[in-house]
Known about the structure:
The structure holds two protein chains of two kinds.
Chain A: H1 2-22, E1 24-31, E2 47-52, H2 61-68, E3 81-84, E4 87-88, H3 95-102, E5 108-113, H4 129-147, H5 150-154, H6 157-168, H7 172-183, E6 198-202, E7 205-208, E8 215-217, E9 235-237, H8 240-247, E10 252-254, E11 260-262, E12 264-266, H9 278-284, E13 292-297
Parallel strand pairs in A: 1-5, 6-13
Antiparallel strand pairs in A: 1-2, 3-4, 3-5, 6-7, 8-9, 10-11, 12-13
Chain B: H1 9-38, H2 41-82, H3 86-219, H4 228-231, H5 258-266, E1 294-300, E2 306-311, E3 317-322, E4 327-331, E5 344-346, E6 353-358, E7 364-369, E8 373-378, E9 384-389, E10 395-400, E11 407-412, E12 416-421, E13 426-432, E14 437-444, E15 451-457, E16 461-466, E17 472-477, E18 482-488, E19 493-498, E20 502-507, E21 512-517, E22 531-533, E23 539-543, E24 548-553, E25 559-563, E26 569-574, E27 581-585, E28 589-594
Antiparallel strand pairs in B: 1-28, 2-3, 3-4, 4-5, 6-7, 7-8, 8-9, 10-11, 11-12, 12-13, 14-15, 15-16, 16-17, 18-19, 19-20, 20-21, 22-23, 23-24, 24-25, 26-27, 27-28
Amino acid sequence: FKNGRQKLRMSEDDSVKKEVWDGKIPVCFTVDDRELSSSIKKTPEPCYMLVRRVTYFSMFYEKLEKLFAKETSAVVGDEMWLSSEEIPLKWHYPVGVLYDLYGNHLPWNITVHFKNFPEDELLHCQGSEPVKTYFVSKLKEADYLKHKLEVFKELTQEDTALLWHGFLQDQYSEFWGVNKKFMLNSRSVSEPFKSIPFCIYREGQPVFQKLIASVVAQSAAADNNKEADVQSQLQRKQTLEDLLRLYDSNLSFIQESGEHCPLVHVIHGIEVPLSVPLQWLSENMSYPDNFLHICIVPPKRN
Amino acid sequence: VDVFCATPRMDTDSADKNHADWRRLILTGLQQRNSREKGGFPELIASHENLQAALNHYKATINRLEHEKNQLEKLFEDAVKDDAHPSGKVDKKSVDQRALQKELMEALRRRAELADKVCEMTDMVKDKEGELVKKDKMIRDLEALVTTLRAESETNQQKYELELFVSKSVQEEHRNLTALYVKEREKSDELRRIVENLKAENQGLKDVRETKDKKDSRLSLSRLPFSANSTRQPSIPPADPSMERLSGDTARQHSLDAASSTYLSSGTQDQTHSLKKSSPSIKKRKNFAICPSSNVHQFDAHESDVSALCFSPDGTCLATGGSDKVVKVWTLKPDIHTVDPNCTILSGSKASIVALQFDPTCKVVLAASNDNIARIWNLSDQACKHTLTGHSAKVMAAKFLAEDTQKVVTGSHDRTLKLWDLTQNTCFRTVFAGSSCNDVIAVKGKSGPGCTLISGHLDKRIRFWDIRSNATASEITLPGKISSLDHFAERQLLLCCSQDDTLRLIDLRQNLISASFSANGFKVGVDWSRACFSPDGQYIAAGSADGSVFVWEVASGRMKSKKEHTSAVVVCGWHPSGQLFASGDRNKKVILWTS
Lengths: 302, 595
């Protein structure tokens, strides 16, 4: 029965992972009208794409450039950047995160810019190398938090290549064939992570990142923070609520009207129940870079 | 999460439930999300992408096609431009083509013609070249011929010249031989004549003897003077051989000239006889000459020097020769003290006259001149009868031979004496004297009728020549160069004037200097100063360099000098009568003197 239940859970977990992996958002890329070159008589057709939630926008820069660069007065050396309703989009955030933060319409309208790169808000991304480097560093960071880099050290070149290739080419099994190692410790045994790698995003505020252990000692139940007390036999799995309380103890924000409203947290576009254990979340609902990216949004947003 | 079973079960169970709940919640949430977010978009987006792709493709195709169209249009336009009017262009082209073809044919034909012409020309050139070669060969042959002919002609020329020379010499010889022959003929004729004469004379003698005997028998009663005059005949024509005159002691030998023989016949030793014949009107006294003392007449005879002076034997004229190249013959007035200023001028000489002589008949004048020529003029017509050329230097003296006035002897500074035959105008004898001759005298030979020449030379010698024989007879050396000679035949005296300023008398019989005359102040004026005897042999006179005339009495040696001339006196001479003396100087003047 237990095995059966386990299997069911595992199949459910797998389904969750698959669903997370397959998330796509329809995007409509249009060129900024102001940047069109004078010789163009009509605005070029927008480019519609289904963009995977787990990727980064910088992977589409090349295609978009090919499509739109000649229509604009852009010259060689101008870097493309994207904006959603005047808000420049950071390319190192996964698409899902960006949509959860800024997306408001389906299909999501993104404007393609070539000029006036907002130096103070965006990082430059030339080519595909920065993305890969960033992805791998995120993986490393995550593994450090989880296993103190024990698993990452074991990775071979081939594993890294597979990881990246699978991620890039939307190959779920290829990716998870390597990625599951990160879920296990160095001895390939499931073990609670030391800390949970997570980031909390909120519009207008810097990224929130703190250490939070996967399990804490029971006795310190009232004490939601900090490290687990290993010597105590009783351990409690931390939940999402603990994480959020870490961010903001009130879990609410003050509206303009002065009312307190509860915070709305979105992971992968859904509102996850607060009681879900962090360990589980980290294993199943992390982005491919093994981070839990949580977005705090105002409640009006649906 | 469920792997670590170390967790308390209780929690797990409740958690399980919760887990089961929230797992399902999450799952459904995710599914809802997916359906919401993806929705019908995938198909839309896919079709949109297809449309875009197709659109792009067609755009590219259109671009390409348009580009191609533009190119074709351009080509077409170009093609259109090339042919201005599609239809007319074709015709024109064909027309042009035809015309071009015609031209081509024409050109080809012409070229063929020209090629033919070229062949012809080359053939012609070849022929001409062949001809040229032949001509060249001919020319060369001819040239060779010409050179050989020239050489031949040269040799022929030389031969001819040689022949000519030979013939000339032969001719000369022939002439000489003919002359000789003629002479021989004449001689033989003469001899015949002489023989005949002899015979006649013998006969005559016989007759004379007979008459004489008769006369003697008759004259035993009365004597008739036997004057020499009667035996002498005036103006004997010199060439008349039939002379009746014979002197007993004249042993007739062969004499070269009949004239001298007649002369001999007329002269005997007891007759005074000078070379100059005198007219019968003048009486011959023994000492009839005057000693010149007073100047009775002087006149300008010539332009400058008076270089020769001679009285005519008949006493009518005085001839003077000067360095003005003429001989002037002055007629003496009847009182013989003056001359007629109108004189006869004998010209023809090219240089000054240095010696003069009248012929015994006073018809011709013989002059010796510095132009190497002796001349003879006719007095009557002043024509030059004879011109005796042959000397190579100036002729200093010319004299008629004593017995034969057809023969002349000339003495010259070319160291020769030449004997001339006037009848033939040739020099029949040249005597090489060896020294320049200043004066020459032709005298009757000592030993008979043969003529002797006496010449005075610059080598201070007087030479005696026998005409008949070739050899030098003898010579007398004097201390000074002989400047002139004169001869007094009666006493066989020779007067020599020499440049050592002395006059010497030489006795020809004894060949000795019998007397010498000199004086202070007497200096010989010129190399050929002429001294002379008086016709009677009483005086001798000579002119001096200072212009005075010196006269010596021969017998006593007394000297008289008279200075009337202003310049050196060169020539002097007595009138045949002895009553007049003339002297000429170097400054035109001739002065006539009497006592």
